[in-house]
Amino acid sequence: MIAMAALPWLVTGCAPASAALHGYHRYTNPSVAMEPTLRVNQTFNARPVRHGRYTPKRGDVVVFTMPSWSADGRGTQPIVKRVVAIAGDRIGCCSGGRVTLNGAPLSEPYLAPGTAEAAFGTVAIPPGQMWLMGDNRANSADSRTGRGPVPASAVIGVVVLK
Q1: Pick the CATH number of 4-86+130-160 from 1.10.10.10, 3.30.420.10, 3.40.50.150, 2.10.109.10
Q2: Is the CA virtual torsion 85, 158, 39, 75 positive or negative?
Q3: Domain named Peptidase S26: which ranges (predicted)?
């Protein structure tokens, strides 16, 4: 069994449909990968998305399943990340220590002050895909770490932030 601390990008605790609150599904965040937006062990709601019905929007925090990102390789474990780039965008790092989107430094007010960015080359996001990153960049396995873009059809919920 893999220790939860070794899987900082995972979200666990998908509630059965009967436990949904007003149509939302509840999840618990076990890691620091999305701090400060979602704290360790914070429970949050996500609006369910029917398969293939999510239209990516920059800034959304999404819950998705993806076999190549999953610790078990089956893609059954829900994962939570932020949509940073969508189809047609070009994303890269770094310009003055900031992620660039379509050649301009990206404003990311959701990051903790002083967040350091690790350099990665410019990537063009293909149709039907999106680039996902954790808000705690130093502690998030995401699109930057060899996983690449994710199909929008992998999204199962959009996090409702208060």
Answers
A1: 2.10.109.10
A2: negative
A3: 24-160
